[in-house]
Amino acid sequence: MIQRAGQVLDPKARRQNVEFWRTPLDADRVREPRADVYVLEDRCKGCEFCVEYCPRDVLAMAEHFNSKGYHPPMVVKTGECLNCNMCEAICPDYAIFTVKLPEALPATALQIAGVSRSSSS
Amino acid sequence: MTIEIRPDYAETVEHPVSPYLRMDRIPHVWCPGCGIGTVVRCYASALERSGLDLDKVAVVSGIGCSGRAAGYLKLDGFHTTHGRAIPFATGLELGRPELTVTVISGDGDLIGIGGNHFIHAARRNLDMLVILINNFIYGMTGGQNGPTTPLDAISSTMPFGNFEIPFNMPHLAASSGAPYVARWTSLHTRRLTWSIEDALERTGFRFIEVVAPCPVLYLRLNKLGQGIDRMRYYHDNAEIRNGADPSEADIDFQGRILCGVFVDKPRPTYRELMQAHYREVLGDEYVPMPSEGGMIHGE
Amino acid sequence: MADPVGVLTGPHYMDGDVACGEGAIAAGCRFVAGYPITPSTEVVERISHRFPRVGGTFIQMEDELASMAAVVGSSWTGTKSMTVTSGPGFSLMMENIGLAAMMETPCVVVNVQRAGPSTGLPTMVGQADVMQARWGSHGDYEIIALSPESPQEAFDLMIDAFNLAELYRVPTIFLMDECVGHMTEKVMIRPAEQIEIEPRRLTKLPPDDFMPYKVNDHPVPEFARVGDGYRFHATGLTHDERGYPAMTVAAQEEHVFRLSDKIRAQADDIVRFEEEGVEDADVVVVSYGITARVARASIDLARDQGLKVGSLRLVVVWPFPENRIRELAGSVRGIVVPEINLGQIVLEVERCAAGNTRVVGVPHAGGAVHDPATIAAAIVEVAR
Q1: Which of B68, B153, C279, C346 lies most in the core, judged by the most C-beta atoms within 10 Å?
Q2: Within a domain: residue A119?
Q3: pLDDT tens digits for chain B (299 residues)?
Q4: At what angle do helices C41-54 and C16-27 cross, to 10 degrees?
């Protein structure tokens, strides 16, 4: 049986995911990490770096605004964040980060609304 | 798709960079799409990985947007006068040698008004890590031409295009004698973090230039889009070549950005040279300043 | 008590510059960043010679701006720090003197004054930097300035300068002049046990409770040293008690007035002058530095003519002894102010006398000391 890497192939996606032509020999041993994505919405300034550089296109800019009038990112592919941490690394406003989960648990997307504890109110 | 909005999370969950930042001053003043926040986060990340005693780390900034970096890091920090971050850091590192001193400042501050101090500190191989955030412009004062502004770029004091040849910073640092010279962009978050971590393990005048976007001034004045467009430009034009000759690292307007670790050649620091020399000349009479510093009358 | 390692107890025959350097070492100064400039160079030459044997670090920086910045940085490590210069270098240091005042950093700046303006007469005396010492950097701030009249005082007052800098957390200007700097006289260096040192007042609060610019009963905040775990932030921007930039009118008012009152409200404790024969004088001569010694000869000449003349020698030039001058103005017929400039301290005397007495300046463009007869003539003229 051909095992896909897990993503639905989207012809319009900027990066296509790997499609295996046969089952890898260690498919039963290798597990992909999964993570929760935390978006601290009110810190976001809408720069879109995280959306652009997520290797799995997990994020997209939300329709709603945060309290400063920017569109924050939101997770549009729940359960597919691999904890590569690129969004956390590149966000200039410290508004997004990932927390790795034990593999067995499914990932959830957590959109933290409102102001975080230590930003200006 | 499940989105749980949990207001109580603001109380219990914080960004992993929080222990290294003055969270009572976040959000910071930098513009949307500005790269300085990313560089500060990479520095914090490198500090975490380095295992250094953070009580002994001091950060010094000059004036400008990049100069605000010291104010957001939860370390002994100094926001000093324009261009004088490097000599201020000299006083810190010579006055208490056990400190790990980092200078984080901008292109106008460090190599414009601060140019003289830059080359002498590199020449002397004073022990400090200098992170120059290069956005090609004087940002905080409204977008004036700087010593790294590329040829033909528009700025508020060169409204018809820049006709001055800019500095090639890695070349200047290397020829002044810096033992570690690297350049990255704010897109290369991981390599930058590793580079800072490597630099923190070394001694002497370590220099890392980080090319970062200035969306509100440099990009807007030159009609280059938003921060995200600049990141795409870095993605398409940054060429990583470790060990490249720094003299090839010029940046033309919208041209190639050569990145990598260009120089990694340790040499004795100012203090090592000084102590070795005095020991040789004065023998037992030499009393070096202890690494805990020169405070001999403290309550 | 001074660290005995640095104190060359005993009699010496040395010039003012060298004595100044020795005074710094005796006071516990262990970091000097300087740049050569006539007539101050001998100070750093002496220090570069002595420091390697007493645990100090001297670095000759690339210019005076770097020197002053390095001194401010080094002072934050708890190390007593100083720089040495003359007029043109003093002008270059102004921005960072302002930074030291703003960050409340104790440090000493020695200005061995020479005739100006600009390059002027590099090897010849002047006293024209007095107002610059007080007002040289931009904005409202206060400094303390001392003026020695002999190599002995160049040693003794340097210790006082460092102590005052520590007490008030302020850049202290040591206003020597080229004559005193290059004059060779006997200097008695007393034993280390007899030298009183004001230590760096470090806070005893734990880092979580400490705020770098919070004052309690004492008008000067306590110091936290870089590297002791306090993780403070110090900035040249107007700041609040936490040291964080505060861009409000209220913060500016609170901050600038506190910086000013730190000195002004304690001026009576800081002011120092030496009086002689003032009690029943008709004329008082107010002078400082080398001119005070010339004035003594002038006063003798005037007394020989039967006049009752007193002298008030400024030891601490800034803050200026306003109250004493106001007092004297009420009881004397006139005050004569000789100085090797076109009239700087005389303006302060005039201001404080407030018209209650005649104030006559005896200016000198610089390059040499006054002819005592000139000052004596002014005294005689005022006494009439």
Answers
A1: B68
A2: no
A3: 334 444 444 445 789 999 999 999 988 999 999 999 999 999 999 999 999 999 999 999 999 999 999 999 999 999 999 999 999 999 999 999 999 999 999 999 999 999 999 999 999 999 999 999 999 999 999 999 999 999 999 999 999 999 999 999 999 999 999 999 999 999 999 999 999 999 999 999 999 999 999 999 999 999 999 999 999 999 999 999 999 999 999 999 999 999 999 999 999 999 999 999 999 999 999 999 999 999 988 87
A4: 40
Distance between CA atoms of residues B191 and B172, nearest Å: 22
Give how far A2 is from chain B: nearest CA, Å: 26
Domain count of chain B? 1
Q: Quick check: A112 and B13 CB within 8 A?
A: yes
Count CA within 13 A, CB hemisphere, residue C287.
30
- Chain B residues whose beta carbon lies within 8 Å of the beta carbon of residue A111: 3-5
| CATH class belonging to C4-194 | alpha beta
B263: which strand partners? B181
Interface pTM, i.e. ipTM: 0.95
Interface test with B, best of C231, C237, C241, C244 (most B CBs within 10 A): C231
DSSP state of C2: -
In chain C, which residues have their Cβ closer than 8 Å to the Cβ of B100? Answer: none
Identify the band that residue A117 occupies on the pLDDT scale cut at 50, 70 and 90.
very low
Give the domain CATH number at A40: 3.30.70.20
Number of domains comprising chain A: 1
**C-alpha to C-alpha distance for B290 and C90, rounded to whole angstroms:** 31
Q: Where are the domains of chain C?
A: 4-194, 274-383
- Contact partners, residue A10, CB within 8 Å, separation at least 6: A16, A57
With respect to residue B298, please indicate whether it lies within any of the assigned structural domains: no
| A88 located within any domain | yes
- Condensed to tens digits (0 to 9), the pLDDT of residues C176-198 reads 999 999 999 999 999 999 999 99
Which CATH number does the domain C274-383 belong to among 2.60.40.10, 3.40.50.920, 3.30.470.20, 1.10.10.10? 3.40.50.920
Find which of C235, C244, C247 to mutate to test the B interface (most B CBs within 10 Å of its CB).
C235
Residue C243 and residue C260: Cα distance in Å, rounded? Answer: 17
Which of A49, A111, A120 has its CB closest to that of B27? A120
* CB-closest option in A40, A78, A86 to B15: A40
Mutate to test the interface with B, among A93, A99, A120 (most CBs of B within 10 A): A93
Q: Rounded to a whole number, what is the distance in Å from the CA of A110 to chain B's nearest CA?
A: 5
Instruction: Indicate the Cα dihedral angle B117, B118, B122, B127, nearest 10°.
Output: 80
Within-domain flag for B37:
yes
Over the stretch A74-86, which tens digit does the pLDDT of each residue have?
Answer: 999 888 888 999 9
Task: Give me the domain span that covers residue B127.
Answer: 16-285
Instruction: Write the single-letter amino acid at C328.
Output: L
Q: Is residue A6 part of a domain?
A: no
Residue B11 lies in a domain: no
Collapse the DSSP code of C218 into the 3-class scheme (helix H, G, I; strand E, B; otherwise coil) and give the result: coil
Among A92, A91, A99, residue whose Cα is nearest residue A37 = A99
Residue at B142 is within a domain:
yes
Chains that touch C (3 or more CB pairs under 8 A): B
CATH of the domain at B134: 3.40.50.970
Q: 């980092």: which residue's tokens?
A: B102
Residues in chain C with CB shorter than 8 Å from the CB of B76 are 226-227, 230-233
The sign of the dihedral angle between the CA atoms of B157, B160, B165, B169 is positive
* A40 in a structural domain: yes
Q: Pull the structure tokens for residue C94.
A: 């102004």
Question: What are the φ/ψ torsions at residue A45 (nearest 5 degrees)?
Answer: -115, 20
Query: Does B contact A via 3+ CB–CB distances below 8 Å?
Result: yes
Domain that holds residue A104: 34-112
